[in-house]
Amino acid sequence: MPRSPDEKALTDRLSKLYPLGQSKIMLEIERRVCGCDYGGTSWATRHEAEEIAKLLALVPGRRLLDIGAGTGWPALYWARMTGCDAVLADVPLAALHIATERAAADGPTGDCWAVAAEGAALPFKNGSFDSVSHSDVLCCLDAKLATLKECRRVVRPGGRMVFTVIFPPPNLASADHERAVRFGPPFVATAAEYPAMLQEAGWSTTHRRDLTAEYAKSVQHLLHEEAAHAEQLSELYGPAEFSETLTRRRMTAQVIGKGFLRRELFAATTAPFPMS
Ligand SMILES: C[S@@+](CC[C@H](N)C(=O)[O-])C[C@H]1O[C@@H](n2cnc3c(N)ncnc32)[C@H](O)[C@@H]1O
């Protein structure tokens, strides 16, 4: 499926932001807010990554596919921490280059590969992986159901998938939904709820956890750090872009506080495909 202009614009934007995320000040802020320093763009904290590693049953020799892997958070951390093998898939090449450099610098880990690929068109044979993960990725792409179906196709029978995602809760008034869409991640709106999409894609949900309180706390913490380092960040991003980012993030914090955006973790295992 051809990428829409909005999807291309997001990739262009991320291609510029990922290298800036490697600056000393950005890595320091990330350490304080999320407990990691990969130049990540999701809200996954180190604590959360450790919980997910257990849910994915990551051990040496287990093959993980991380979709929307960015610069390697959290997949490279898992490869280092658990010894699992990891394939990192994403669209911006700038992010994957940073990830491969980090993998080389990290020292002994499981095997790691980076692949330029779309979540909805994965270049792998059926059943290639034991585990699949994605951190706040489905809210950054349009083809949510198609991506969940591809994840199902490339995981082996009995394999696992764990992901986090941000979305507007169902039954919001339309003005509130509009605010969630305006101030949430770029593709936060969904045509169907995630449990229904998981079922349609051939997954059985095994675990679901609301992470909204942690998400709200991280956004507030990041706002605090950005305000405290405004001068350095203005220089890094340019004053206009930094000011716009800060204003938008304050609106995002408000929208989360009002309950118009939720962040959840879903864990699933393969279900037999329904007979057609
Ligand atoms: C919120 S970021 C998460 C990145 C990284 N995993 C992290 O935690 O920092 C979402 C990622 O999804 C990627 N993405 C967007 N559309 C995609 C698509 N169609 N297929 C695969 N990845 C996509 C973006 O390029 C971005 O790197």
Task: Give a description of the structure.
With about 280 residues, the chain is of the alpha/beta class. The chain has one domain: Rossmann fold (3-Layer(aba) Sandwich), CATH 3.40.50.150. It is built from 11 helices and 7 strands. The chain has a 7-stranded mixed β-sheet with strand order 3-2-1-4-5-7-6, sandwiched between helices. Helix 5 (about 95-105) links the parallel strand 2 and strand 3 (about 110-115). Helix 1 packs parallel to helix 5 (about 95-105), helix 9 (about 210-230) packs antiparallel against helix 11 (about 240-255) and helix 10 (about 230-235) crosses helix 11 (about 240-255). The radius of gyration is 18 Å and the shape is globular. It starts with a helix and ends in a 6-residue tail after the last strand. The relative contact order is 0.14. The structure holds S-adenosylmethionine.
Oligomer: single chain
Query: Would you count the extended β strands for me?
Result: 7
What is the helical fraction, as a range of percent?
A: 40-55%
- Tell me the major beta sheet: 7 strands, mixed
User: How far is the first residue's CA from the last residue's CA?
Assistant: 24 Å
- CATH level-3 fold name: Rossmann fold
Instruction: Provide the CATH top-level class.
Output: Alpha Beta
The structural domain count equals 1
Mean pLDDT: 96
Shape descriptor reads globular
Report the order of strands and helices.
HHHEHEHEEHEHHEHHHE
* CATH homologous superfamily descriptor: Vaccinia Virus protein VP39
Radius of gyration: 18 Å
In DSSP terms (H or I, runs of 4 or more residues), the helix count works out at 11
In the CATH hierarchy, what is the architecture at level 2? 3-Layer(aba) Sandwich
Strand order of the largest sheet: 3-2-1-4-5-7-6
Query: Could you tell me the strand content as a percent range?
Result: 15-25%
Bound molecules: S-adenosylmethionine
Low-confidence stretches: none
Which structural class do you get from the secondary structure elements? alpha/beta
